[in-house]
Amino acid sequence: MNTLDELLASGVCAVMRKLPVEDVEAIADALVAGGVKGLEVTLDSENALEIITNLNKRFGTRAIVGAGTVLHATQAEEAIAAGAKFVFAPILDEETIQVAKSHGVLAIPGVFTPSEAHRAMQYGADLVKVFPAECVGPSFIKSIGGPLSHVKMMPTGGVNLDTIEAFIRAGAVAVGAGGSLLNKQLIEKKDWVGLQSLAAAFIQKVQESRQLLS
After folding, report:
1. Rounded to the nearest 5°, which phi and psi values hold at 64?
2. Which domain holds residue 199?
3. Residue 44: CA atoms inside 13 Å, Cβ hemisphere, count?
4. What is the residue-level pLDDT of the chain in tens, covering all 214 positions?
5. Per residue in 12-62, pLDDT tens?
6. Is residue 181 part of a domain?
7. Which of 48, 135, 140, 183 is deepest in the core (most CB within 10 A)?
8. CATH code at 79?
9. 187 near 20, Cβ under 8 Å?
10. Residue 214, in any domain of the structure
11. Class of residue 182 by CB neighbours under 10 A (exposed 0-12, middle 13-18, buried 19+)
12. By CB neighbour count within 10 A (0-12 exposed, 13-18 middle, 19+ buried), where does 184 fall?
């Protein structure tokens, strides 16, 4: 199974943004134990590059660790040098995609229109991050999935347990989850068992939603 297939298999990519540095490994442990395969460390987080390196060493093949909030090619180079296996961006930037592909790393740019989605694939993106998904909803995924059936879409931003099914049934190949998965209260209480259970619930919801399509 290649990296893209592995990332999509669990159906959930965790957006790890500005988490307490001292708890990052415990948080990642809980997510992976719950079945989450993709760990996106956003570059606006403290010690982001170091965290990417450390999490890669910690999990090996058990998780796919990448970088998020990558805004330009230089950041992509730095993240890949730190060990990022994918590059997530909230925007569409051709140079960033080219850097990722030149290193054999997954390129996942952010898009918000059909034209951006199409251009992203022309530039070589592996899939696109529909962001912010809460602003357009599942109907956007369904509507452009017809004429742009070649575009794999991962909605991110505002995705939660209540909306996963609608996004998957609309055609999303996976979802990106931030605050709804990285629950602030659980993290503040260091409730890693609770976080693992929440992660497992996200995975289960994706799998159940996929079964409804078959």
Report:
1. -110, 110
2. 3-209
3. 8
4. 899 999 999 899 999 999 999 999 999 999 999 999 999 999 999 999 999 999 999 999 999 999 999 999 999 999 999 999 999 999 999 999 999 999 999 999 999 999 999 999 999 999 999 999 999 999 999 999 999 999 999 999 999 999 999 999 999 999 999 999 999 999 999 999 999 999 999 999 999 999 998 7
5. 999 999 999 999 999 999 999 999 999 999 999 999 999 999 999 999 999
6. yes
7. 48
8. 3.20.20.70
9. yes
10. no
11. buried
12. exposed
Separation of first and last alpha carbons in the chain: 21
Which amino acid is it at 185?
Answer: Q
Identity of residue 86 = F
Q: Is residue 61 part of a domain?
A: yes
- Residue 109 inside a domain? The answer is yes
Is 16 exposed, middle or buried (CB count within 10 Å of its CB: 0-12, 13-18, 19+)? buried
Contact criterion met (CB below 8 Å) for 65 and 41: yes
Radius of gyration of the chain, Cα coordinates, nearest whole angstrom: 16
- What residues act catalytically? 40, 129
User: Are the beta carbons of 107 and 131 closer than 8 angstroms?
Assistant: no
Number of domains in the chain: 1
